[in-house]
Amino acid sequence: MEHLTDAQILAGCGEDPASFATLIERHHVDLHRYAARRVGADDADDIVAETFATAYRRRDRFDPRRGDARPWLFGITTNLLRQHHRSESARLRAHARHGVDPVAAPPDAPRDPMGPEVARALAALKPKHRDVLFLHAVAELSIPEIAEAMDVPTGTVRSWLSRARARAQRELSAPVPGPLTDPRSEIA
Question: Is 124 helix (H, G, I), strand (E, B) or coil?
Answer without folding.
Answer: coil
